[in-house]
Batch of 2 targets.
Target 1
Amino acid sequence: MLQPSKQMTASFHAELYKLIPEDHPLRKINEIVDFTFIHDLVRSSYCEHYGRPANEPELLFRLLFLQVLYNLSDERIIQETQVNLAYKWFLGVNPEDNLPDPSQLSRFRNHRLGAGAVDEVLISVVRQCIEKGLVKSKTIIMDSTHTLAASQKQKPLEVLRDAAKRLFRVVVKKHPKLEKKLPKLPGLRKEDQEDAEKIMLQYLANLGETVELLLPDHEGSISEKVRIAKAIVEDERLLANKGIMSAIDPDARFGWKSNTKSFFGYKEHIAMTEEEIITAVEVTEGSSDDGKQFKELLNQTLDAGIEVHEVIADTAYSGKDNLEEMKSKQIQPVVPLNPIVHNGGLRQEGFEYNKDADFVICPAGQHSIRKAVQGSKQSGNSRSLVFYFDTEKCKACPLKEGCFKPGAKSKTYSIRIVA
Ligand code: SF4
């Protein structure tokens, strides 16, 4: 049940807040951003008539804000806030007041706000920045940065075993009586090693189905583990070591910063003003193409009320579609052209060009191992870039049908360069 916003009654101890310097960053943020919009944003996620009164959503949101700003865990932000005057002042509570339990933060983040609320929060904050005259520039800068996954990359067998153990554990913890009804983790003998992945895949599928049968109305952490188990079982690229690579963070993927440096995690695609106010954010798996996020970032920025006259971005955004989109909106692109990206990238479905690493990634997740230019400058339009794949990997590839002819000496992918 959500109660109307409370007005705090300042206690005698609130005098201590005078010790917080006038130029403290939290004072400045508090002056500029009005967080009361959070109340309306989460209203629909609360039952109107039943349940205990909810902890003030704005207070929980401000705690999440501090958590992100100072990079602290749920437990640490509560511990730190308990003894930090500036944090407590920012929350709008009295120095002697108690704070919510850390578990309330994750509930609020996942069940009340949810991933979808990020855009709305961003739009509300950007609109306030515009109203307060903080956005003067009509130029938007787009780029991406990477975030590491919450776990290490695992081999397919580890992914399967880990997912199975996690699902088994969470079900038994919540329903101890079901332990005997669940299939037991198979002990793999030496002679099973060759088929270990298939045995474990079969076990995970069987375990998932049994849980759904025994607990048709499962929810919360059980649903989450069932969802992950299903995604792993249905992932065609898992055993080729190119699909899901972590049972903890199944959406994380390898991305490339250059052709020798990779990372395991996600990409954050960002649009911001010259005043460094972020106007749009899209999070994708690490392997995704920056240029494909362009329209979404631009539309989010425009929806927030920013007037855009110019976009500054790198070659990844130089695709024809993006340039045409800018032209149609009378936006000046400041984007260096990359001939491959500009000409529409790759034509065959599933192949992607990675401009940071300058290689092509195929549908099986393999990347080309070298490239060559075919044709001469004199021949003008007929020049092509040819990317070569490792034929040993193609021979063993589960997706080779229609892609690699048995006995072929090479597997290439050509892209015409239009001068
Ligand atoms: S056959 Fe080779 S190029 Fe084609 S999808 Fe498989 S690994 Fe990639």
Note: The CA atoms of residues 351 and 362 lie 4 Å apart.
Target 2
Amino acid sequence: MNERDSEKIESILQENGYEKADIKEADIVIVNSCAVREKSEKKIFSEIGRIRNLNKKAKFISMGCVAQIFPQKLSKISDVVLGTASIYEFKNFFNKDFKGIFVSKEMTESDYIFGHLKSPTAYIDIIYGCDNFCTYCVVPYTRLREVSRSYNSIIQEIKNAVEIGAKEVILLGQNVNSYNFDGVNFIGLLEMVNKIAGVKRIRFVTSHPKDFSEDLAKTILDLDKVCEHLHLPLQSGSDRILKLMRRKYNFKEFAQKIEYFRKYNPKGSITSDIIVGFPRETKEDFKQTLMALEEIQFDEIYSFKYSNRPFAKAALMPDQISEEEKKERLSIVQDLQSKISEQINKRYLGSIQEVLIESKAKAFNQVQARTRTNKIVNIDNSKLNLNEGNLVFAKITKLNKHSFNGEICTN
Ligand code: SF4
């Protein structure tokens, strides 16, 4: 969502005749910020200091999640502070002095259609905010209450993105499954997007396990453009910890949702998020997380050490886990997941996958592509002429640590 917010700002600047410049010579410097973990929040303050030293003349804009929750603090080191719900305000800056705090307590102009930069993949906000208040999470304070965008503005924005080359759309929200506008739910919205000419693939992120249904699992199968990849954050394998986190499901219920997905999408992939070292997480609780990883067999997980976040209830809980213990648990989780991922990914070797060319790869003469199941495939382009946005079939030839190598199938 932060990436999309940055893109919105960049498109407004482009519309007003601005171009990207070297940071030392820029007239305006904008720093977008993330508050989801303590480390990223702290970094923003040191980063602003560092950049201001490089360019003392530029107008300085701080935006994003840290701006939303700490506007006063950021205003001491920025000319403008722009909250997550006030991006629309940025359109009006060009007639004014760049000065002030623009932080709304509710989403302004949720239906406004911002521009997109040319890319094969377009991020499309469908729902803003979150009403779940998981006890470790700052997002309900940084992104505020849930607001679904009108389907008309979503569809128009997708059409605009397709017109400038988007082939794939990623529908964004903290909890996309809660989408509800004028009687249209998330499944209804997927059906509408599936009909848009020029859209070749549809992805969505993030689903909350409590709202993921068998109907949605079947819709992924039924709608040809919806990719067979589900990101479903588990967070912990222990029911006791899930309750303390206020996740509103237990492990058995979570496993049931996974079964729904696999019943209709047996070749699909599933990724998840895991937090280790939540307050009061015992060794037994942690063991249950490891057992959950073994049982579910996620393709990949994004794993984090718990950190106290402002306003979040868990920061006040007793029995906080030491940094050392959290670090050790994280490394155990990551080691286990690496083995599971490797086993799952080996099954891809020799298979033929539909891939979307996204960009140049790091290696010379290679392009980076993505399967419908969200796996990265690097393809040698030295004798081919593959371009961003091409949708082709590739044979998977080699397994790397976090990606594959592939060869284009010519017949
Ligand atoms: S569902 Fe929970 S973890 Fe996700 S954004 Fe909302 S409060 Fe945070």
Note: The pocket of iron/sulfur cluster is lined by residues 130, 132-134, 137, 139-140, 174-175, 208 (CB under 6 Å).
